[in-house]
Amino acid sequence: MREHTITQIKSGRRNRLRRWILVNSLLILLACVLCIAMLMIGNTIYPASDVIRVLMGEPVDGATFAVNTIRLPRMLAGLFAGIAFGIAGNTFQTMLRNPLANPDILGITAGSSVAALICILIFRTSNTTISIASVLAGLATVVIIYVLAKGKSFSVGRLILVGIGIQAMLSAVISYLLLIGAQQDLATALRWLSGSLNGAQLQAITPLMITVVICAPIVILLGSQLSLLELGEQSATSLGLNTNQTRMLLILSSVAMIAVATATTGPIAFVAFLSGPIAKRLVGQGYSNVLPAGLVGLNLVLAADLIGQFAFEVRFPVGIITGLLGAPYLIYLLIRMNRKGSL
User: What does pTM read for this prediction?
Assistant: First the structure.
């Protein structure tokens, strides 16, 4: 009987591992298809052979400028921003054990947005300064929310409510900045607030690529510890986890990614909110959800950008399309949580 039980457990683990590998492989394959489509499709559609020749450094009439200057930076911005939003959103949702606890709802994205808008509308600084200010503002927002929500004992529900309040306050600040901003800067600010990949340039997205290359592996390597944190403070500590150190590394890495991504593309709505739940439903329980969430995030951004560019007569920024996808899910989640009494 005991041997039979052990065999069943091993079989279950193998099945969950096969499912995890299969889902990630399919998500990577879909990401490759979307990346190729973004490089091929535009005002002029170039065959894949021409795109490959351009990427190999071979000059091709017309295609070289379109691919290297316009489409490749746009694709890379969407790819790295999607990974950053997806991983960061999943980290907060898992760590705080609540699907509402993502950077958009908690006000972290709004904090970074305020800093970026101040840089754009008031000081007119460089993109590097915008990125640094966004990261610092994101971290400051996390600290303020934590301090205000701490009270006598830590409560996730209180933290979410404080975050929603901070988010509303920061939204008011954003409206005020738009009101006082110079007329010639408003178009840039509004396009940025919508979450857009338009006008992406390789130099401007370099800080985002560096941040994701450094921070994403840290969160992925801490994926098993993140799963332990989901069990609760006491259980994680009893299993030998240094919860304070792990939580600090996860928060710093996630906030850095979300802040730099926000500074680069603007706040692309609901990607951080949707990626974790979608990845969890695809992968199931048993293995880390970090990598699948990042892959879901990048696929969401790339697919939404293609839809926004070519599915309608008017071209829409990517953030509007992800907002249309995410808002119904947020309403569904609130209704479901209210019925369960967990809101």
Answer: 0.88
